[in-house]
Amino acid sequence: MALSRVPGDDEIYVGGIFTLRRKSTLVSLGITHVVSVLKYDFKDFEDWEQYAHLSIEVDDVDDENLLGEFENSGAWIEKALKDGKDGKPGKVLVHCAMGKSRSVAIVIAYLLRKYPHHTVATALGLIRQSRPIAEPNDGFMAQLELYKEMGCPGDIEAQPKYQRWLYQREVDLALAAGMAPDKIRFEDEESQDEVKEGGKQVELRCKRCRRTLATTPYLVTHTPKSNMFSTVLNNGPIASLAEINSPPKTPSTNCTSHFLHPLSWMRPALEQGILAGRLECPNAKCGAQIGRYAWQGLRCSCGIWVCPAFSLQKGRVDEIVGAAAPGSGGPSAGGAGGIRLPPGMRPKETL
């Protein structure tokens, strides 16, 4: 299967590297633009200069960063189709080595960007109507889901979720080498995604001194196995650094710990550069041991493995539940039904 047209109004074709050898086919189809999604030297292809060319040099491996290319490639394809050549609409060939993974992922990203009604699954299904072998690797599929979740933004680099995803990759590389990461991303010091209004807001306080330790936006949500709908989560760890603005879930009574994202009060412990250790109350007059951390992960009492893990023992903290302040998307600074924060804590410093 050398070349397949993606069903729909757009003149987009998917193929492998050998498609470029079929000069007569490309001419007959009127191909004007080519997107190459692989590392290759194209100097030996005949009449190569007649095509406008976009090169994306990536390997077909799960941990390759293709997500960062989605906006640029999508905008390029859209312009190519519209402006074309010699005053006529363009026709775009997107290819990789086999026309199965990398090229298909780029086309899916274009469809998500151009047609918001599409999901990753429906876009892939559309391509498979003419190219049954279409199957991006698992890493690319996860990146496409994240791209859709972010709303296919024009500036991916500025998205907190993208920045968090990049950091998770750095952490994974460090852990693969048996080391704690050199750089630590403290979530309360970073820009955050907009949190939806409504729902219960949770504040965790040290049971001994009542110092606020964390609030809803910085809790890692996970669902006990008995309540899970996804077999994917049953079979692997929750990458906690990538979960920060998931809809809050009601903590399970089976869980004996709360899991958090790294927060600045943990700095003295985490910047020691060791893989695991204790978490102590940041109140200098208290210093009670309230939990522990492990970059290589911890298993919750409910059976879910969270990695990396920053946990507070439920027996060492109080859980205060209140309503979100209207329009705030988070804990209120005070008022009936809201969570009252300690005096002097500014909103941007809120944990």
Automatic annotation (TrEMBL):
<feature type="active site" description="Phosphocysteine intermediate">
    <location>
        <position position="96"/>
    </location>
</feature>
<dbReference type="InterPro" id="IPR020422">
    <property type="entry name" value="TYR_PHOSPHATASE_DUAL_dom"/>
</dbReference>
<dbReference type="InterPro" id="IPR029021">
    <property type="entry name" value="Prot-tyrosine_phosphatase-like"/>
</dbReference>
<dbReference type="InterPro" id="IPR000340">
    <property type="entry name" value="Dual-sp_phosphatase_cat-dom"/>
</dbReference>
<dbReference type="GO" id="GO:0004725">
    <property type="term" value="F:protein tyrosine phosphatase activity"/>
</dbReference>
<keyword id="KW-0378">Hydrolase</keyword>
<dbReference type="GO" id="GO:0005634">
    <property type="term" value="C:nucleus"/>
</dbReference>
<dbReference type="InterPro" id="IPR000387">
    <property type="entry name" value="Tyr_Pase_dom"/>
</dbReference>
<feature type="compositionally biased region" description="Gly residues">
    <location>
        <begin position="327"/>
        <end position="338"/>
    </location>
</feature>
<feature type="region of interest" description="Disordered">
    <location>
        <begin position="324"/>
        <end position="351"/>
    </location>
</feature>
<feature type="domain" description="Tyrosine specific protein phosphatases">
    <location>
        <begin position="77"/>
        <end position="132"/>
    </location>
</feature>
<protein>
    <recommendedName>
        <fullName>protein-tyrosine-phosphatase</fullName>
        <ecNumber>3.1.3.48</ecNumber>
    </recommendedName>
</protein>
<keyword id="KW-0904">Protein phosphatase</keyword>
<dbReference type="GO" id="GO:0008138">
    <property type="term" value="F:protein tyrosine/serine/threonine phosphatase activity"/>
</dbReference>
<dbReference type="Pfam" id="PF00782">
    <property type="entry name" value="DSPc"/>
</dbReference>
<dbReference type="InterPro" id="IPR016278">
    <property type="entry name" value="DUSP12"/>
</dbReference>
<feature type="domain" description="Tyrosine-protein phosphatase">
    <location>
        <begin position="4"/>
        <end position="153"/>
    </location>
</feature>
<comment type="similarity">
    <text>Belongs to the protein-tyrosine phosphatase family. Non-receptor class dual specificity subfamily.</text>
</comment>
